[in-house]
Design a protein that fits this description.
This protein has 124 residues and is mainly α. Helix content is 67%, strand content 0%.
Length: 124
Amino acid sequence: MDKKAEPLDCVLRRSISAKIVNLMQALNLSIEEAALNAGLEYSNFYYIMKGRNTPRLDTLLKIAQSLNVPPEYFFKDIKVWNNRRRDNLLQKHTLLNKIIKEANKLEKPAQTFFLKVLKIYNHK
């Protein structure tokens, strides 16, 4: 059974945080040094580094430059969807589009009835 997909902002925060920490360790930088090199306030950098805040794009660019990596480095290897979940969502979306297309062909009274049936079915 699939686990519920984690929200993208959480995935990004954790991924960016881990990569910043790894780069800081490789460069032997303290939090203060890394924040100063990036031109950021200590607290702002700290919360990004700890994964509590998602950096704005301009902030991420400053961090990337200060750690000598291209900005896209922070977005590599991010896994948001597993294949089975993505396939299930695509199938549901395709089926829903087919149902809507067929419902639009119905006369108004039939559409109203069809929507009532869907509403009842959805509540079960």
